[in-house]
Write a structure and sequence with these properties.
Layout lengths: L7 H5 L11 H6 L20 H7 L4 H5 L2 H15 L4 E2 L6 H5 L4 E4 L3 E4 L6 H5 L10 H14 L4 E6 L1 H10 L7 H9 L1 H25 L3 E5 L8 H17 L8 E4 L7 H6 L4 E4 L5 H8 L4 E6 L8 H15 L5 E5 L9 H20 L2
Parallel strand pairs: 1-4, 4-5, 5-6, 6-7, 7-8, 8-9
Antiparallel strand pairs: 2-3
Bound molecules: coproporphyrinogen III.
Coproporphyrinogen III (CP3) binds next to β3.
């Protein structure tokens, strides 16, 4: 197949039986009937897996994201082990920002740390627009993965402007996002200039992944829940909309996710999502009431529940499958990422249980 025929236009019509576009995951994102409820886990590629810890032992995080053969192997690990319905590209939300010229590192046990935080108009200018040439390793890894994965869809992702801005303005992880909010409330013009630039970088990064062949994209606005709905609409929604609506004709479903977003679910759907991610605080039927019946939902299992005895896990899986029926499409997932201390066997059992319970129901019509 030539590069041209693997582009978005070709994939748009590519729902041949058995291909990734006809997979249960993509069908659920598009609110079409599925043979079973699809399941994957945010942060499935990572520290809960011994095979991941082994392969990463001597390679720093950011470097591992820049080695296509490592990205491919780590992305495939949870697919092999758990039989999940989708793979998610192994990367990080700060990878495109680093490619855009921001000096940063991912510090083990801490997260992204920025050498010189972005707090002035001149700082914003240091964030360059990016093209595929700035992230060749992502392009290459996605192309390899699409071949290796066959019918299993690959999810591409990026960080949303607010969550990226928080790391860049704070200089690292923050509980209160105080410096970020001080800039947002104190200099609205600079705030929008920063988020315009981040939306541009994010959109370009997602387009590279889509051109290379991912079947869906997820926009992580992990920390958007720190804002009221009014502030979200004023300071954040226009920028996340620029990203998601910018992909309206890209031919792949768009998932929009955040934590603590009970009050924001409707607005997050409005940004241009096909699927809205829901954390553990809002049951999926309640979430659907807020998001509207034209969007699919994903999430809701508290990652901490996976640390509890199996009967507790099983009861939660049953509850979420039941409440997910209120939505026109349901992708089973956690309400946030897999915790490093999670027993991988439990994840494998959850996948099997979701498949068993939901296919039994599909059989019964
Ligand atoms: C906020 C955020 C980040 N990165 C990401 C988000 C949004 C999702 C979320 O809210 O959790 C997204 C992300 N980061 C990573 C992935 C890989 C794909 C997946 O399996 O989901 C994804 C989708 C790998 C990673 N990204 C990181 C790791 C850990 C690196 C290691 O192995 O040491 C992995 C596997 C590092 C990272 N990078 C970031 C944090 C907070 C951390 C953890 C710091 C720590 O506790 O060590 C920023």
């Amino acid at each position: 197949m030539t590069t041209e025929t693997t582009g978005t236009a070709a994939r748009d019509g590519d729902s041949r039986p058995g291909g990734p576009a006809d997979s249960p995951f993509i069908r659920a994102c598009r609110r079409r009937p599925t043979p079973h409820t699809p399941v994957w886990f945010m942060r499935q590629a990572g520290r809960s897996l011994p095979e991941y810890r082994e392969i990463r032992a001597s390679v720093p995080m950011l470097e591992s994201c820049r080695r296509p053969e490592l990205v491919t192997e780590i992305t495939l690990q949870p697919v092999r082990r758990h039989g999940v319905d989708a793979a998610i590209l192994f990367s990080d939300i700060v990878v495109p920002v680093a490619a855009a010229g921001v000096d940063l590192d991912i510090v083990p046990g801490t997260g992204p740390v920025v050498a010189e935080p972005i707090r002035t108009a001149a700082d914003v200018q240091r964030i360059r627009p990016i093209t595929r040439e700035d992230v060749p390793y992502v392009d290459e890894a996605v192309r390899q993965l699409v071949v290796e994965l066959g019918d299993t869809p690959l999810i591409g992702f990026a960080g949303a402007p607010f969550t990226l801005a928080s790391y860049l303005v704070e200089g690292g992880p923050s509980r209160t996002h105080a410096k970020t909010k001080a800039l947002m409330y104190g200099d609205e013009e600079l705030w929008h200039a920063l988020c315009d630039r981040l939306a541009e970088v994010t959109l370009a990064f997602l387009r590279v992944q889509i051109e290379a062949g991912v079947s869906a994209v997820q926009l992580f606005d992990s920390w958007a829940g720190a804002l009221s709905e009014a502030d979200y609409r004023r300071y954040v929604l226009p920028h996340s909309t620029a990203v998601l609506s910018g992909l309206a004709h890209a031919g792949v479903p768009r998932i929009h996710f955040g934590v603590g977003t009970a009050e924001l679910l409707g607005a997050m759907g409005e940004a241009g999502a096909d699927v809205v991610g829901v954390d553990w605080r809002t049951p999926l039927d309640v979430a659907t009431g807020r998001i509207g019946a034209d969007k699919a939902v994903q999430g809701n299992l508290d990652p901490c529940v996976l640390l509890a005895p199996w009967p507790v896990v099983e009861a939660e899986v049953r509850r979420i499958l039941e409440q997910g029926r209120a939505a026109p499409g349901h992708v089973f997932n956690l309400g946030h990422g897999v915790l490093p201390e999670t027993d991988p066997e439990v994840l494998t059992r959850v996948v099997a249980l979701v498949h068993e319970l939901s296919s039994r129901r599909a059989d019964q019509g």
